[in-house]
Design goal:
Layout lengths: L8 E4 H9 L14 H14 L5 E10 L2 E11 L4 E8 L8 H22 L3 E10 L5 E9 H34 L10 H16 L2 E5 L6 H15 L4 E6 L2 H17 L16 E3 L3 H4 L18 H15 L1 E2 L1 H10 L4 H8 L5 E5 L1 H4 L4 H9 L3 E5 L5 H8 L2 E4 H10 L2 H20 L4 E3 L5 H20 L7 H16 L5 E9 L24 E9 L3 H10 L2 E6 L6 H7 L6 E4 L9 E5 L9 H18 L3 E6 L2 H14 L5 E3 L6 H9 L7 E6 L17 E4 L9 H14 L8 H12 L10 E5 L7 H4 L10
Parallel strand pairs: 1-3, 4-5, 7-17, 7-18, 8-11, 8-12, 9-10, 9-11, 12-17, 19-24, 20-22, 20-23, 21-22, 23-24
Antiparallel strand pairs: 2-3, 3-4, 5-6, 13-16, 14-15, 15-16
Protein name: Rad3-related DNA helicase
InterPro entries: ATP-dep_Helicase_C, DinG/Rad3-like, Helic_SF1/SF2_ATP-bd_DinG/Rad3, P-loop_NTPase, PDDEXK-like_dom_sf, RAD3-like_helicase_DEAD
Family: Belongs to the helicase family. DinG subfamily.
C-alpha cells in the first residue's frame, strides 16, 4: 500500500513557473519597463477592446499530488475560446529577453491547463498580448494547444517542483514546531523587556501596529524578535522582516537571531544537522556584494551572470540547507557555484524565514521585500529598529531634485538627437531662476512650460534608450533622475513641497562639468546661474499608509519615539496603532541631569563660550572621566574646543572632523577606554550621537550644547507652515520634537547598563521651559 504524504503545499502559478521555466543567463541591461500603474492601464486598454462577454481576472486552481496551484488569469474570451496573458511593456517586443518570453509562455500555458481542466475544454487558443505603455498598441503571439498537451506541461512543471515543495513543507512544519516551544535564550526576560515582548505579541496576534518607546538597556532587539518568532506559527506568518535605519542595527539583530536560532529545539537528521532551523537572510547592497563592479550585469560581460539561472538550483539548494545566510555565507555559496552573490541573495528572499536589511527594502517605492510580499501574497510582519529615523529616511525615499548644471552637462554630452529637448529644459529652468525674486522660491504648482519640457526630455530619452540599449552609458542615470522627478511631480500634493533654489554660477549648487563653457545655451540660459528644482516630501505617511495596511503587523521601536502622535501623523500609521512607553531600567538617581544657565542661540554663542567651557572644565574637575560634548555644527564645535584648550589646557580633548572615514571614526571611539580621561567633541545627530555603545567607565557623561533645532531658513519656514496647516500650530513637528529626539538619543550614550552612573548637562536655559521639559524622558530628574 502506497503511503499518502501528510503535507500539502500551495504555490502560485507565477512562483511555479519562475522556479521551473526560468533558464539561461542573468541579464540586467536596461530595457524600459512599465510601472504597475501603467500595467493596469495597459490591461484596461485591452479589456476595452474585447467583446462584452470577456471574462477578466479569472481565479483558477488545480491539484497535482500534494501541490495546490493557484492564480488569476488575465482574460478569457469564451466565444472564440481564447485565454490571454497581458504584459505591458515599453518599446519593441524584440527587446524582451528570450528567457523572459519563455517564462511568460509557461505562465500562460499553466493557466491554460487549469481552465481547460475546470471547464472541460478539448483545446484552447493561447494569446500572449504585449501592450506598449505609451501607444497602447498590441502585439499578439498565438498558439493553439490540446488540453492533453497543456495538462502534460502542467504535470511536468509540478513534478519538477514537487520535491522542493515537500522539502519546504517539511521545513515549515519543523520550524513552526521549534518556534512554538522556543525558550528565551537568556533564561528570563527583564521586567521592561517583558512588557515590550507582551506588547509585540499582542499586536502580532491582532494584526495591528505598535509604537514602542523603550530606553537603552532593556534589550529591545531580543525583546521584539522573541515574541514575534513565538507568534509566527500561530499567526501563520510567512516571513518576518527586521528593518534597520543604520548598519549597526543589523549586527545586533544577527547576534540576537543567532542566539534564538541556537536556542530553538530541533530534530536532527542522519548527519546530525538541525531540521527546520530558522532561515535567516541578510539583504546586502549591490555595491557591497558585486564581485565585478566594472562589468555589466549580463551573461556576455560578467562570468557570474553567464548561465545564472541554469546554475541557480544547485546554489539555492545548498543555501537553504545552510539556513544561516549572512553576507559571508551568500558570497561563499555563490562563488562555489559560479553565480552572482547579490542576485543569489535576491532569489533566496523567497525562501528565508527572517530577513534582516535596511528600511528601504520595505518602504522605498521600489523596495524588494515589500514588492515581492505583495506579488506573492505573503503574510509579512515587520520590526523597525531605531524607528525615530524612519521619518527622515522615508522623506528621502519620496524626494528628488534636478539641477540646471546637471541638465547642461547631459546636453553637452548627449547625442545630437537629444540636445534640443535637453536645451529646452535648461532654458525653462534658467528662465524660472532669472524671474524669481529671491534665491529660494516655493512653487505652488509647476509652470506648464517647465512640465512640458520635462515630459519632452523623458519621451526623447525613453525612445533613445529603447533603440540604443547597449549605448546609453551615463545618460541612463540621468534618465532615471528625470523619470523620478516626473513621477513625484505627477503626485505632488500638500504632503510634499516643490521649490526652486538659485545660486550664482561662481558658487554653484552642484559641481559644474569642465566643458560647460563650450555649451551654447542661447540667450535664455547664459550660464550665469544654477538652479535646483526639488520635490521635498514632508509627510511620508501619504505614501506609507498603504504599506502599513498591507502588512500583517508592524512594530516600530526606539528610545525616542514620543510624542506618539508625531510618528502616527507623519508616517501614516493606522488609527488603532498601539503605544507603549517602557519604564527605564535605571534608578533615576543613577543619572544626574542639570541645566546650564546660558544661551546657545546663534547670536549668543560667542558671548557664552567662556561660560560653556567653564561648565565642562568644572564638571571634569569634580568627576574626572570620559565625556562627550555635542554641538549643532562643526563650526560651533571647533570654536568651543579651541576655547576649552585656551582656558583649560589641562583637560584632554579630541574632535570629530568633517568627512571622517571608518578608520578615523574607530580612532575617535578608541579614545574612550575604561577609566579614561578627556572630552570628545562631536556633532549632534552625527555618527557618535546614536548607535554608539560605551558602557561602564568608558563614558560617564555628556554635554549637549544645543536643542537640536534646525537652522532658520526660508525652506524651514515652508516646512513649518506646511505642517502647521496639516496638523495645527504649536505641535513642534517641524523643529522641537525632532530636535529633542536627537538630544535624548545623544544623552542615551551615558547609561548603557543598570549598573552605570553618569551626568548629562543640558547647555541652554531653554531646557527650563515647560514645552521643552515635556519632551524629555519622564524618569529624568532635571536639576
Amino acid at each position: 500500500m502506497t503511503e499518502i504524504p501528510s503535507w500539502t503545499y500551495t504555490v502560485s502559478v507565477r512562483s511555479l513557473c519562475e522556479f521551473t521555466a526560468k533558464g539561461g543567463s542573468l541579464d540586467r541591461r536596461f530595457t524600459p519597463s512599465a510601472t504597475s500603474l501603467e500595467g493596469q492601464a495597459g490591461q484596461m486598454a485591452v479589456y476595452a477592446r474585447r467583446s462584452p462577454g470577456y471574462e477578466t481576472e479569472l481565479p483558477l486552481e488545480g491539484q497535482y499530488g500534494q501541490l495546490r496551484v493557484r492564480g488569476r488569469a488575465d482574460g478569457y474570451e469564451a466565444d472564440v475560446n481564447r485565454l490571454e496573458e497581458i504584459k505591458t511593456i515599453r518599446g519593441p517586443v524584440e527587446l524582451i529577453p528570450e528567457n523572459r518570453r519563455v517564462l511568460h509562455w509557461a505562465q500562460l500555458e499553466t493557466y491554460g491547463a487549469l481552465i481547460a481542466a475546470d471547464r472541460g475544454l478539448a483545446e484552447l487558443e493561447l494569446a500572449l498580448v504585449y501592450v506598449d505603455a505609451d501607444t497602447q498598441h498590441e502585439t499578439v503571439l498565438r498558439q493553439t494547444l490540446t488540453a492533453a498537451a497543456l495538462q502534460a506541461g502542467f504535470e511536468a512543471r509540478c513534478r519538477e517542483f514537487e520535491a522542493w515543495a515537500a522539502q519546504e513543507a517539511a521545513h515549515r512544519a519543523a520550524r513552526d514546531a521549534g518556534l512554538a516551544a522556543l525558550p528565551f535564550p537568556l533564561g528570563e526576560l527583564r521586567p521592561g523587556q517583558r512588557l515590550l515582548a507582551e506588547a509585540v505579541y499582542r499586536v502580532a496576534a491582532n494584526g495591528r501596529c505598535l509604537l514602542a518607546q523603550a530606553p537603552t538597556g532593556i534589550g529591545k532587539t531580543l525583546g521584539t524578535l522573541y515574541p514575534l518568532l513565538r507568534a509566527m506559527p500561530l499567526q501563520r506568518l510567512d516571513k518576518i522582516g527586521y528593518m534597520t535605519c543604520k548598519g549597526t542595527g543589523r549586527i545586533t539583530a544577527l547576534e540576537a537571531l543567532h542566539a534564538l536560532r541556537e536556542a530553538a529545539p530541533a530534530k536532527r537528521n542522519a548527519e546530525g544537522a538541525p531540521q527546520g532551523a530558522l532561515r535567516v537572510l541578510t539583504l546586502v547592497a549591490k555595491e557591497q556584494a558585486c564581485e565585478h563592479p566594472t562589468k555589466a550585469c549580463h551573461g556576455d560581460a560578467c562570468p557570474l551572470a553567464h548561465g545564472f539561472y541554469d546554475k541557480l538550483p544547485a546554489a539555492r539548494a545548498e543555501a537553504v540547507q545552510a539556513g544561516w545566510l549572512d553576507a559571508a555565507a551568500q558570497r561563499r555559496i555563490a562563488l562555489q557555484h559560479d553565480v552572482c552573490p547579490y542576485y543569489l541573495g535576491q532569489e533566496l528572499l523567497r525562501w528565508a524565514d527572517v530577513v534582516v536589511g535596511d528600511v528601504h527594502h520595505a518602504f522605498d517605492p521600489y523596495g524588494q521585500l515589500y514588492g515581492l510580499a505583495q506579488a506573492q501574497g505573503w503574510k509579512l510582519a515587520l520590526l523597525v529598529d531605531e524607528a525615530h529615523n524612519l521619518i527622515d529616511r522615508a522623506r528621502d525615499m519620496y524626494s528628488t531634485s534636478l539641477s540646471l548644471a546637471r541638465v547642461r552637462e547631459a546636453a553637452a554630452n548627449a547625442p545630437a538627437s537629444l540636445r534640443a529637448p535637453l536645451r529646452g529644459l535648461a532654458k525653462e529652468l534658467a528662465t524660472l531662476g532669472h524671474a524669481q525674486a529671491a534665491d529660494y522660491q516655493p512653487l505652488p504648482t509647476v509652470p506648464d512650460a517647465l512640465g512640458e519640457a520635462l515630459q519632452r526630455v523623458n519621451a526623447a530619452l525613453g525612445e533613445y534608450v529603447q533603440n540604443h540599449p547597449l549605448e546609453v552609458g551615463p545618460l541612463l542615470e540621468f534618465y532615471f533622475e528625470c523619470l523620478g522627478l516626473q513621477r513625484l511631480l505627477d503626485r505632488l500634493d500638500t504632503h510634499s513641497l516643490c521649490d526652486l533654489q538659485r545660486a550664482n554660477a561662481a558658487r554653484p549648487l552642484t559641481e559644474a562639468p569642465a566643458n560647460l563653457s563650450l555649451l551654447d545655451d542661447g540667450p535664455e540660459d547664459d550660464g550665469s546661474i544654477d538652479v535646483l528644482l526639488s520635490v521635498r516630501n514632508i509627510v511620508p505617511g501619504h505614501f506609507l499608509k498603504e504599506r502599513f495596511e498591507g502588512l500583517s503587523s508592524v512594530t516600530l521601536f526606539s528610545a525616542t519615539l514620543g510624542p506618539p502622535d508625531y510618528p502616527r501623523h507623519l508616517l501614516g500609521l493606522p488609527d488603532d496603532t498601539a503605544w507603549i512607553d517602557v519604564p527605564a531600567p535605571f534608578p533615576a538617581e543613577h543619572l544626574t541631569v542639570q541645566v546650564a544657565n546660558l544661551s546657545t542661540r546663534w547670536e549668543h554663542r560667542d558671548a557664552s563660550l567662556n561660560a560653556l567651557v567653564d561648565v565642562l572644565a568644572t564638571q571634569y574637575g569634580e568627576h574626572p572621566g570620559n565625556y562627550l560634548a555635542f554641538f549643532s555644527s562643526f563650526d560651533y564645535l571647533d570654536k568651543a574646543a579651541a576655547r576649552l584648550a585656551l582656558r583649560h589646557p589641562h583637560v584632554p580633548q579630541w574632535r570629530q572632523s568633517r568627512a571622517m572615514g571608518d578608520a578615523a571614526r574607530r580612532g575617535f571611539l578608541d579614545r574612550f577606554v575604561e577609566d579614561g580621561r578627556g572630552v570628545g567633541f562631536a556633532v549632534l545627530g552625527g555618527a557618535f550621537a546614536e548607535g554608539v555603545d560605551l558602557p561602564g567607565t568608558r563614558l560617564i557623561g555628556a554635554f549637549i550644547a544645543t536643542l537640536g533645532l534646525p537652522p532658520v531658513s526660508p525652506l524651514q519656514e515652508q516646512v513649518r507652515e506646511r505642517l502647521d496647516a496639516m496638523f495645527g500650530a504649536d505641535h513642534g513637528y517641524a523643529d522641537l520634537v525632532p530636535g529633542l529626539q536627537k538630544v535624548v538619543q545623544a544623552a542615551g550614550r551615558v547609561l548603557r547598563s543598570v549598573d552605570d552612573r553618569g551626568w548629562v548637562w543640558l547647555m541652554d536655559q531653554r531646557y527650563r521651559r515647560p514645552e521643552v521639559r515635556a519632551l524629555l524622558p519622564a524618569w529624568w530628574r532635571v536639576q
